[in-house]
Amino acid sequence: GENVEQHPSTLSVQEGDSAVIKCTYSDSASNYFPWYKQELGKRPQLIIDIRSNVGEKKDQRIAVTLNKTAKHFSLHITETQPEDSAVYFCAANRDDKIIFGKGTRLHILP
Amino acid sequence: DAGVIQSPRHEVTEMGQEVTLRCKPISGHDYLFWYRQTMMRGLELLIYFNNNVPIDDSGMPEDRFSAKMPNASFSTLKIQPSEPRDSAVYFCASSLWEREQFFGPGTRLTVL
């Protein structure tokens, strides 16, 4: 079955710097890769997603890249701000469901 | 739409008691998912339904867990009997096919 590995598990960056979170997946049939953000005590919410027919997608300060050959995808956050502090989950689809990575706790340092 | 609704938001119970968690998906969504979140295991898919039919329950930890979806607007997740290791946040989510999953606010379950 699908296995999604995510790293790092914790990431601290200075405010204004960039943050990168990386994920790998195992099922070559996966074609949908969403990223969710979960603030403390809140529910996970989708921030960006990418499908396998594109290699990159950008939305303001957030971008996601996908390398289907290597089964890698990454989240890039530029010009980080305090409100970016949260846990970020990558995911990949398998059949009708999505499999989540274990999450990355992002700390934005003042 | 009010989004995905879950109840109760918090549940504290004693070991051995039956626990029932409830979920109302977004109207028109045909997929409903139940997740469990813990620090140790992350976000785990327990079971999901399509058009009220259970499709994959391979994530249900054991026979103490059961889930139903009697109609398109209501689902329950039941634990009987509950154990301390069941303590977690349980999320319900709904979606359309291959579209964003919308999560409910979650139920924080504590089993003493």
Task: Describe the protein's architecture and organization.
The complex is a heterodimer of chains A (110) and B (112). Chain A is built from no helices and eleven strands. With 110 residues, chain A is mostly beta strands. Chain A starts with a strand and ends with a strand. Chain B is 0% helix and 55% strand. In chain B, the strands form two sheets. In chain B, strands 2, 4, 5, 6, 9, 10 and 11 form a seven-stranded mixed beta sheet that branches. In chain B, strands 1-3-8-7 form a four-stranded antiparallel beta sheet, with no helix packed on it. Chain B starts with a strand and ends with a strand. The interface between A and B is medium-sized, with 19 and 18 residues.
Which terms would index this structure?
heterodimer; A: 110 residues; mainly beta; six-stranded mixed sheet; B: 112 residues; seven-stranded mixed sheet; four-stranded antiparallel sheet; globular
Summarize the helices and strands and which ones pair or pack.
The complex is a heterodimer of chains A (110) and B (112).
Chain A: E1 4-7, E2 10-14, E3 19-25, E4 32-38, E5 45-51, E6 56-59, E7 62-67, E8 72-77, E9 86-94, E10 97-100, E11 104-109
Parallel strand pairs in A: 2-11
Antiparallel strand pairs in A: 1-3, 3-8, 4-5, 4-9, 6-7, 7-8, 9-10, 9-11
Chain B: E1 5-7, E2 10-13, E3 19-24, E4 31-38, E5 42-50, E6 53-56, E7 65-71, E8 74-79, E9 88-95, E10 102-103, E11 107-111
